[in-house]
Design a protein that fits this description.
The chain is an alpha/beta fold and about 260 residues long. About 50% of the residues lie in helices and about 15% in strands. The two termini are about 15 Å apart.
Length: about 260
């Protein structure tokens, strides 16, 4: 199965991919325990890459970068019309579909990140939802940089577990930086899904379907966590729209996307 084409959105190569293709590729790589990186980025993640050349360079070396947010999907379709994406690929649903496929295929998964109560609750709920799912490791974040010894122990634990997929929930862009630094060391597909840990643990409610379809999920999340998220949305959302319009009009180009199309 070929890796999906990418299109530059503000210099970040976003994959033109659907759930079926993304999950199929993850399962193929996981069955061979290949070291790969997949991430699901909404506006905040794309903007973090657009404004940070080092992060952008790292993101553009990922195997799959899915359009998590509707505005990212809309921008993708405006900037390159073929093939047209009819749905976004959310981190939450990507996790769910990957776990369903892993349960069917006997692929082990490892959960890495978030608080101990969150990651444990996520593991419990995933086992209930997908009978037969092999969760071969659960490890919470330290909320600090690991020492070289701790990091080596973490990698050894992941590799010994036999996991084909490591779900990473350290928050954007820390999780993407971590995955890039561990490419070739962690012998599994690293899937960065951030807030999916909180959603799947039942700690955060998900936006109603109509808000998700309308691209208003950010407004729902802002209402849930105003103190933490208001700066992000007040700054990144309008800047994203303005920069996409500049790219669409050809007034400004953005480098280092390395898109395939």
């Amino acid at each position: 199965m070929p890796i999906p084409q990418k299109t530059s959105v503000l210099g970040v190569g976003v994959s033109r991919v659907d759930y079926e293709t993304a999950v199929g590729l993850v399962m193929d790589w996981a069955s061979r325990r290949q070291s790969r990186i997949v991430t699901a980025l909404a506006v905040h993640g794309v903007m973090a890459g657009a404004l940070d050349s080092k992060l952008r360079s790292h993101l553009n070396r990922f195997d799959i970068l899915t359009p998590d947010g509707q505005p990212v999907r809309w921008a993708l379709n405006l900037l390159a019309t073929q093939p047209r994406l009819h749905e976004r690929v959310r981190g939450v649903e990507l996790t769910e579909q990957t776990c369903a496929a892993a349960a069917r295929g006997g692929i082990g998964v490892y959960l890495y990140g978030s608080r101990p109560d969150v990651v444990q609750a996520m593991a419990t709920r995933l086992r209930e939802a997908y009978p037969g799912l092999k969760i071969v490791g659960v490890q919470a974040s330290r909320f600090r940089e690991a020492t070289p010894e701790e990091d080596a122990a973490d990698v050894a634990c992941m590799n010994r577990s036999g996991a084909g997929v490591v779900f990473v929930g350290l928050g954007c862009p820390l999780q993407e930086q971590w995955a890039y630094e561990h490419l070739g060391r962690v012998q599994a597909v690293m899937v960065c899904v951030g807030a999916a840990f909180d959603f799947l643990a039942g700690r955060l409610p998900q936006a109603p379907s109509w808000m998700q379809r309308a691209g208003l999920e950010w407004l729902f999340r802002l209402a849930q966590e105003p103190r933490r998220l208001w700066r992000r949305y007040a700054f990144y959302n309008p800047l994203f729209v303005g920069m996409v319009l500049l790219q669409l009009a050809g007034i400004r180009t953005f480098s280092d996307a390395r898109p395939q199309a």
